[in-house]
Amino acid sequence: MNYPKFELLFCIEDESDPSIMLVKKLIEKHPEIDASVFIGGDKVGVNPKINNMNPGYEAAKYDLILVSDSGIRMKEDTLLEMVCAMTENVALVHQMPFTCDRGNFPSVMEKVYFGTSHARIYLAADLFRINCPTGMSALMRKKLLDEVGGIKAFGQYLAEDFFFAKSFTDRGWSIRISSQPAWQNSGICEITNFNNRISRWAKLRFAMVPYTIVLEPLSECMVLGACAAWALNVLFQWDVFVVYLVHILAWLILDWILLNVIQNNTLPFSKMDFVVAWTFREMGAFYHFCLALLDPKIQWRTRTFYLRWGGLAEEVSPRI
């Protein structure tokens, strides 16, 4: 990375993880890089990510700490750009989730979702200074975390990223979005995993910010279009189906424009692929909403957690 001084702290939970050998080979190949490996983590709460990261966090020696998931691909200038955004009144710089280019239909679904529906909400929330950071890539001031007990103080929550940001804003600090997205590059890309992930995030939002149960459906294309068509029919006797179709077409075009702006390059799929993936996502939004609302339990790999109001989590199924 193009940055004058940094250290890499690899945190790996499972001692049998094959990535350990890969990381050690990389460290041997680049002895000029200050890097360490932490295996096993510390049991400081119910959040597996916090437990895994805590040894690395406590060993960190610099004032700024960047939490980056293993599935995130970073460009050479990403760290420099994020540090430049960390002005004197900013405590956290985060990246909007997006995806790398891949070839199958599930990857098209992911890119369309993160480049349209998720991007709209994420950018709007940042514009109005609403707490929205995701923890997959976030640069934070370590001193401010230490003041509240370090990251282990957030081990009782599954959505540690939300509560990191809340801790900062409650003390008068600002959060800022990076100009570069977080390029997700996970090796697993399947429709089932994608659906489970979207439902899991919805469950977290409902537990942390309950009023989203009412507001979130009203932000969806199909629901909002139906409401608008009904209202215009009552007020002006406009044809319901014409209004609804025009609404959907306009929304589709604007989403296509937004996706291209975020991609900032040629998209790896055709317009028809986009239309199919976009329709699939929009039609499935209500399914994800109902699934999240009816089943508050969260499946995280081999663990199951129960969410309480306010975001507190309780493990109900121990790791196998």
From TrEMBL:
Coiled coil: none
Catalytic class of the enzyme: transferase
Pathway stated in the Swiss-Prot or TrEMBL entry: Sphingolipid metabolism; Lipid metabolism; sphingolipid metabolism
Subcellular location: Golgi apparatus membrane
Regions crossing the membrane: 206-232, 238-262
Example of a GO cellular component annotation carried by this entry: Golgi membrane
Topology of this chain in the membrane: Multi-pass membrane protein
Pfam families: Glyco_transf_21
InterPro entries given in the database record: Ceramide_glucosylTrfase (IPR025993), Nucleotide-diphossugar_trans (IPR029044)
GO biological process terms, semicolon-separated: glucosylceramide biosynthetic process
CDD domains the record matches: Glucosylceramide_synthase
Catalyzed reactions per annotation: UDP-alpha-D-xylose + an N-acylsphing-4-enine = a beta-D-xylosyl-(1<->1')-N-acylsphing-4-enine + UDP + H(+); N-(9Z-octadecenoyl)-sphing-4-enine + UDP-alpha-D-xylose = beta-D-xylosyl-(1<->1')-N-(9Z-octadecenoyl)-sphing-4-enine + UDP + H(+)
Molecular functions (GO terms): ceramide glucosyltransferase activity
Keyword Isomerase annotated: no
Gene3D superfamilies membership: Spore Coat Polysaccharide Biosynthesis Protein SpsA, Chain A
Record has Transmembrane as a keyword: yes
Superkingdom as given in the UniProt entry: Eukaryota
Family: Belongs to the glycosyltransferase 2 family.
Cross-referenced PANTHER family: CERAMIDE GLUCOSYLTRANSFERASE
Protein name, per record: ceramide glucosyltransferase
